[in-house]
Amino acid sequence: MTDLADAVRSGDRFSLARLLTMVENGTPQGRQALDELFAYTGRAHLVGVTGSPGTGKSSLVNQLARALRGLPAGEEPHKVAVLAVDPSSPFTGGALLGDRIRMRDLAGDPGIFIRSMASRGALGGLASTTAAMAQVFDAAGFDMVIIETVGVGQGEVDIARLAHTTLVVEAPGMGDDIQAIKAGILEIADILVINKADRPGVENTERALRAMLDLATPERMANRPCGHHAPGVPGGPGQDEQDDPVWSLPVLKSVAPQGTGIPELVQAILDHGRYLRRSGAWRQREMARLQCELDARLHASLEQRWRSQLPEGYYEAVLQRLGQRDVSPHQAVAALLDPQEAPAS
Amino acid sequence: MTDLADAVRSGDRFSLARLLTMVENGTPQGRQALDELFAYTGRAHLVGVTGSPGTGKSSLVNQLARALRGLPAGEEPHKVAVLAVDPSSPFTGGALLGDRIRMRDLAGDPGIFIRSMASRGALGGLASTTAAMAQVFDAAGFDMVIIETVGVGQGEVDIARLAHTTLVVEAPGMGDDIQAIKAGILEIADILVINKADRPGVENTERALRAMLDLATPERMANRPCGHHAPGVPGGPGQDEQDDPVWSLPVLKSVAPQGTGIPELVQAILDHGRYLRRSGAWRQREMARLQCELDARLHASLEQRWRSQLPEGYYEAVLQRLGQRDVSPHQAVAALLDPQEAPAS
Question: Given an 8 Å threshold on Cβ–Cβ distance, is B152 in contact with A151?
């Protein structure tokens, strides 16, 4: 094992930070260390936290990290990593600002490590980079990795799918609209949290969420890795599910700055972890997660390989013909896939 | 030209609906018609409307469609298509419910066509399918195509990038938080709208938006198709921009159900269209848009081709070894890219 991987394993924070940066930048050295460390992963409980802007997610995550560290005697205190994924622009530095506030708040505890990823164009895709960084934390001995994402768009769904347990955060006043509570959250949520529960309208939000829960029994997306099934994979869908204990999605309330509702939330996260292990779903989600990562990396590699074989200027020539509407997008793809057979000019 | 393409060109609504379904499902017949129709595209003004849930986007889009139809004498009334892209689950039917309400509202006007896309797993990706459906409307003579998406995640950004003009919709009470107004919206917005402007807190939202506008001058993402530049492409970045008239992002207010602010919004959209044409940015965005579509289709085709060449059961075997942590994700990709060189078992 390289010195770097070794130092990360032994808990050196500086090496950890260095490796995370390498992994984020996709350097060969980072990849090598990750290859070495991969055998030591699989222990961490990955907790995804997602929700619209304005729901107070970051504050909630801070409180969660703090509470997970200080669990009652008898349980070993968790080592907690927070990975804040902010796909918005690095230009205005939203993630960095948030970070500085957090650092001040949680600094000094060696059992907590906070890291932001603000880069949009991470090599191999944001979800893939997030997965790799979670693996680094996992191998470094962090047994709780909180992955915080903004919103519930497709990109966030991809990232949430990495997690064993996904919290979807709502807030009062955003949930009364016909479109307000997106059906999609039911597919990714394991725990629903109404944060800012001291605000007016909390009853409406709770009622709307519960009504939606009563109505819908959507297929759990965590069981459909990247949209396709994986037949024949041990722990794959359908194998361990026959006599599953059932997880009934809890709806919890919190006021993060005051710590209200945080102990209950921590309990729900730990309960969900136990449920996953007992039911076999832990392994199932892990396989789904690994498959998503594999597929994302494959796509990136396939494109790289194809691009490197293309004659110089060929792509640009086809694009130009497309712009002149000489060829349709479908015809342009055919020309790009088989440069010899269908010359562009 | 096939009968179907011909019928769509001549304005037959039933054929249009049929072709849209074919395109959404990725049928060969739909692809053929699209190939034939592609030469007739390029006239429509594509307007993207995006924003968080609860901002009243759908109601705003309805009002916009209605207003665009009824422009003052002297200007030819627009034919308006609305394409509502809802990547959330088809299970609970959010999009369908919204649709029924709209249908009732705008039914009977032959110059308006409304279509929802609720399917998450569209062949070749949601953005690609959205682009293809917009092309169908374009070829069918709709000169305004409004593409409505939920949220401002990466998926929505991809879709917004299809548009010539992108409206980002905000609402009071969602914008006072440190994370509330995501930096990302400045990269995609051409027009900012504060809808529900009769609600308390509208001044705060406006102040926050204007403050952010003053602070940041982010690189316009519309000029960076899919994250990469396209050197040497006519109309590409840098060529027409020297003496650009400047578009200064307007911040408008509206109360959609009452129609307040709608005429100003319509004016801003038309102004932006004129600005794009005058500055050369129209062509530039169109090229960016076509390139995004081309790339998305390429990726899908590359994967399909690679998968068809893989020995049966090989993928599953590699995945299993990954699950046992015998190989890292990086090593698994290497094995999948070159099955002969690195056998999995």
Answer: yes
Who among A56, A126, A330 is closest to B31 (CB)?
Answer: A330
pLDDT tens by residue, A183-237: 556 667 899 999 999 998 888 888 878 877 776 554 444 444 454 333 333 333 4
Residue B148 CB neighbours (<10 A): 26
ipTM: 0.72
CA B115 – CA B42 distance, rounded (Å): 20
B interface mutation test: which of A177, A304, A337 has the most B CBs within 10 A? A177
Domain B42-94+140-281: CATH class, spelled out = alpha beta
Angle between helix axes B28-37 and B126-139 (nearest 10 degrees) is 50
Are the CB atoms for B47 and B164 separated by under 8 Å? yes
Domain boundaries, chain B: 42-94+140-281
Cβ-Cβ contacts under 8 Å for A198 (sequence gap 6 or more): A255, A258, A260
Identify the band that residue A77 occupies on the pLDDT scale cut at 50, 70 and 90. Answer: confident
- What is the dihedral sign for C-alpha A107, A64, A49, B333? positive
Q: Which two tokens stand for residue B304?
A: 């399909």
| CATH class (in words) of the domain with range A41-282 | alpha beta
Q: How confident is the model at residue A86 (pLDDT cuts 50, 70, 90)?
A: low
A184 touches chain B (CB under 8 A): yes
